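User: Quick sanity check before I run a bigger batch. Here is a single chain. Can you write out its predicted 3D structure?
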Amino acid sequence: MAPQNSNRTYCVTGATGYIGSWLVKSLLENGHTVHATVRNPDCDHLLKLWGGGDQLRLFKCDLNEEGSFDEAVQGCHGVFHVAASMDVIVKPADDDEFVQSNVIDPAIKGALNILKSCLRSKSVKRVVFTSSISTLTAKNNQGGWMPMVDESCQIPIDVVWNSKTSGWVYVLSKRLTEEAAFQFANENGIQLVSIITTTVAGPFLTSTVPLSIRFLLSPVTGDSTLLPVLSSVNSRMGSIALVHTEDICNAHLYLMEHDQAQGRYICCTDSCTLSQLVHHFSKVYPSLTSQRVVETEIESVPTQISSKKLTDLGFKYKYGLHEVIQRTVDYCIDYGFLPPTEKQIK
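Assistant: Done. Predicted structure follows.
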């Protein structure tokens, strides 16, 4: 296991997002001091949930402004770069030039601005970059299925540009930003580790239901915008990979503190096909109308999304696949996003 270091100072970008807000909470509970960067410091809802007292400091930062993160990373042992725009997953894409200049270039610039601030700080020992399963593919060069997906199975950039399937702008943005971050880190002697997040689900601290949860629950809600994206993931990956909120945040800290951590790590509790996912939902949420997904189901073979590299490092998951789905449904019912089942009403 990685050593459990207390009383360190860490910076978290995108602290008001789904992963970022829970990561701040987790770090504070582990005794660390947190520099949380936000675009809008008016986040009283999260401040009450975080607590933290003197161990928490907020910094208003702009990813597109070089030097904006200098103060936030100063004195920090490590930086978690979690910030990313999820809106491009569902917004219709314009022409290639627009996507390049308005989505990809700003994302790359933001990541490099943070890394430049880390260089100037002299205190930052490691940066953990939050990547995405969207940067991978289960299809081989001949268009067939690979039986297992690991960190080496990156989707070719030209394939993304040419296919333009649902969510392609987000895929391209994440893929190119991660590539640029590693290049800059290698050229400047920065220890950069990338954690490839799968679909994160479970409890949340944000005031609205996170997009990844709405994405996962689209077979239940029948969301006509997100369900095709989920189906597209199923067709590209051969399955839907899941991880619990706590596990993804624990993995971030584990990779930050483990001396041998290097390169890219998939964080996946388990995966299942879209039809299997619907079956799981029918068990925990009897109100599901499975006909909603019949037309969008795609014939696929179960593909294993392997997090062997992470578990070989010693990381252990707390929640299994069924628990992730159960806890997500229960939390969303309590939140009011899903109506209670007939049994709960009675």
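The domain at 9-200+244-268+304-318 is CATH 3.40.50.720 (Rossmann fold).

User: Great, the batch can go ahead then.
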